Amino acid sequence: MKRVAISDRVFDIFKWIFLILFMLATLYPILNTLAVAFNDGLDALRGGIYLWPRTFTLDNFKAVLSKQSLLNAAFISVARTVIATLSQLFLTALLAYILSRKEFIFRTPVTLLFIFTMYLNAGMIPNYMWLNKLGLTNTFWVYILPGMISAFNLLVIRTYIHGIPESLVESAKIDGASHIRIFWSIILPLCKPVLATVALFIAVGQWNSWFDAMLYNGFNEKLSTLQYELMKLLSSVTSQGANANDMQNAAQAGGGGMVTPTSVRAATTIVTALPIVCLYPFLQKYFISGLTIGGVKG
């Protein structure tokens, strides 16, 4: 017993050492980006900035926030994230409830049809041609409508609903409740953990998405997203001189000083990641419990 206790203690020591090292390896890029974002642009070019800015300044954030294109892109990103999350969450949960009902005789083929879409895809070119024929390209709704129902999220919510006691639904039916009433008053409140999990999936996916903005609205700056603007900044390494002049003029217009593409990219990265970082702690407990229960119950 003494030898077992010692081995457990050694295991715990190595476990905590590994977790601490893993945490440091995860946090370092974030802290380094923060340090560069709050450091003077010209001073950052010298290198040697690790966890703390050497010359503190807010000029990089002034340069980012003074660009009208970024402010408009931020509005589009927030709008698509909120609208897509609410609409997709409600419609996916409603369809999941329908497919969980035994009285719906077509629930199996419909479920298989959605599963089929998870493994096969027509490809980018047919998808673009299809959306173009529907008139969704060069519009805001191309961010919302094509991904209105996610097969993966549908299966997660449906699996969770299967774990809800059927007696609750039967009691509501005896009391005369309709399916809409059951779904709204019983199913949705009991599915709060899995709904929060799916909402986090959708919100993060919408907020971080940039490829659809480039593909469908690449020539319309009014419909550009914040992540697409960040991508353009991150890919501007080959033209750093021109971007430095542009950012310098923007910073001087806002009362700031010299900035560089490196420091502005760091500041833009922080600005784009901040909303999700602030949102995640409030949904963390639902994220863990919803994902676990939804994946186990059947």
From TrEMBL:
Question: Where does the ABC transmembrane type-1 domain start and stop, copy by copy?
Answer: 74-283
Q: Which Pfam families match?
A: BPD_transp_1 (PF00528)
Query: Key word Zinc present in the record?
Result: no
What keywords is this UniProt entry annotated with?
Cell membrane, Membrane, Transmembrane, Transmembrane helix, Transport
Main location, first listed in the record = membrane
Name the SUPFAM superfamilies on file: MetI-like (SSF161098)
Give the UniProt subcellular location, in the record's own words: Cell membrane
Sequence intervals crossing the membrane = 12-31, 74-98, 110-128, 140-161, 182-204, 264-283
Question: What membrane topology term does the record carry?
Answer: Multi-pass membrane protein
Highest taxon in the source lineage: Bacteria
Tagged with keyword Transport? yes
Task: State the family it belongs to.
Answer: Belongs to the binding-protein-dependent transport system permease family.
**What PANTHER family does its record include?**
ABC TRANSPORTER PERMEASE PROTEIN MG189-RELATED-RELATED, POLYGALACTURONAN_RHAMNOGALACTURONAN TRANSPORT SYSTEM PERMEASE PROTEIN YTCP
Report what the protein is called. ABC transmembrane type-1 domain-containing protein
